[in-house]
Amino acid sequence: MGEIYIGLYEKLLESYNDQFSVNGISGERLAERLSILANIGLTEDNGSRRPGFSTLEREAKDRVIEWMQEAGLAVSEDGAGNIFGRLEGKDSKKAAIMSGSHVDTVPNGGHFDGTIGVLSALEVAQAWKDTGYVPEKPYEVVIFTDEEGSRFNGGLTGSEAMVGDTDMEKTLLRKDYDDRLFEEVIQDVGLTAQVYSETGRDLDEIETFVEVHIEQGKKLEKAGLPCGIVTGIAGPYWLKVTFEGLAGHAGNTPMDDRKDALVAASEFIQKISTLPRTINDTAVATVGNIQVKPNGTNVIPGEVILFVDIRDIRFDSRTELVEKIVKTGEKIQEHTGVKFMHQNVHDVAPVPISEKRQERLAQSMTRLGIEPYYLSSGAGHDAMIVGRHIPSAMLFVKSKDGISHNPKEWSDLSDCIQTIQVLKDYIEKLQVV
């Protein structure tokens, strides 16, 4: 063990309550595997850097493949580099239950995002082997390629390929941070554009998908609970908004004779920050990208371009919020004389989780003495892509201080193991459904 590896391993076990290591689930094994993967692409800040389609992502996949084989899983790989570890159930003709996530990271991320979902799914299979349990239905552990999208400013690439949602024409035009085309980059890890374009799974082979992921928020921490049930995954809708006024001299133009685009945009930003709560408690709207022109200290802003990120877990309520935001801009145009223009530049449909799936997860939590807690996901996940085609569910693990995509990202081992116990119970109960 290297110095950093020992540090993470020991820290994970430091406060671990080993009473949760039952039914074949091992906290020590999970801590060891999290630590081993943490060393792959370790940054100077003790974070993770494993870009999609990199040799580091590939190295992490290969390590998990070894563990899949130890658990008795038959391993296969598709043309997008997605890895599948399959356990044939008593009836191999039945559709499989699938669980997993990803092992790629943002440039200086943490050691739990994605990785915990892969290792949780694998821990279930290993526990079955260790206890002699054989499921009725086939079970698959999946590692999706390039979920984070840090390389091509996209993301969810592997899950899109599996379900057949890849737009190859656009994908082949993508360039990474080194200005290399997609086709060239994937050759680094033994993939080709031709085989990639033919990737796609017969989705009738999969009954359902369930993903474990860190919360990346503070709700579970505030509730004092180890895990929670995701009610839906918010789809982002991005508006490009332009306010077109009139640039002028800051000293010679009277205050009552201006068409200041930045003043209009500022009013717009302030007002839309209050709109989501007029819809429901899951909708959000964010302005995080603003361009002011000509951007001179002594020049009245003549044009402002900004982007609004609008999200909710339901399509109808998200649409209502978009409409309210647009009407707000139109009203500002009326009383300021600054022209308001808007254009949709990104639209991913929200994916609600069925109440039936939520209830089954709640039953598993109750059986294990955990109070069911429900929360939505504002971030996108592979379950969002898969959930468009296959009934899907998600479990969130409590995150310390809500920190994610950061070396300080942390989930206590006791919380992780309790979540895996819920996952295991949930999957086992699906064997008789």
Strand and helix layout:
Layout: H1 3-14, H2 27-38, H3 55-70, E1 74-77, E2 83-87, E3 96-102, H4 115-131, E4 139-144, H5 157-163, H6 168-171, H7 182-186, H8 193-197, E5 206-214, H9 219-223, E6 227-233, E7 235-244, E8 248-249, H10 261-272, E9 284-293, E10 299-300, E11 303-312, H11 315-336, E12 339-347, E13 351-352, H12 355-367, E14 374-377, H13 382-386, E15 392-397, H14 413-429
Parallel strand pairs: 3-4, 3-5, 5-15, 6-14
Antiparallel strand pairs: 1-2, 2-4, 6-13, 6-15, 7-11, 7-12, 8-10, 9-11
Explain this structure to me?
- The structure is a single chain.
- This protein is an alpha/beta fold and 433 residues long.
- It folds into two domains: 3-234 and 350-432, Zn peptidases (Aminopeptidase); 235-347, 2-Layer Sandwich (Alpha-Beta Plaits), CATH 3.30.70.
- The chain contains 14 helices and 15 strands.
- Strands 1, 2, 3, 4, 5, 6, 13, 14 and 15 form a nine-stranded mixed β-sheet that branches. A four-stranded antiparallel β-sheet has the order 9-11-7-12.
- Helix 4 links the parallel strand 3 (96-102) and strand 4.
- It is globular, with a radius of gyration of 24 Å.
- 46% of the residues are buried.
- The model has no long low-confidence stretch (mean pLDDT 95).
Kindly state the number of beta strands: 15
- How many domain units? 2
CATH architecture of the largest domain: 3-Layer(aba) Sandwich
| Mean pLDDT metric | 95
Number of helices: 14
Instruction: Tell the overall outline.
Output: globular
The CATH C-level class name of the largest domain: Alpha Beta
CATH homologous superfamily of the largest domain, by name?
A: Zn peptidases
| SSE arrangement, N to C | HHHEEEHEHHHHEHEEEHEEEHEEHEHEH
Please outline the major beta sheet. Answer: 9 strands, mixed
**Distance, first to last CA:** 44 Å
Low-confidence stretches: none
Structural classification: alpha/beta
CATH topology of the largest domain: Aminopeptidase
Oligomer: single chain
Strand content: 15-25%
- Report the helical percentage: 25-40%
Instruction: Report the radius of gyration as a whole number of Å.
Output: 24 Å
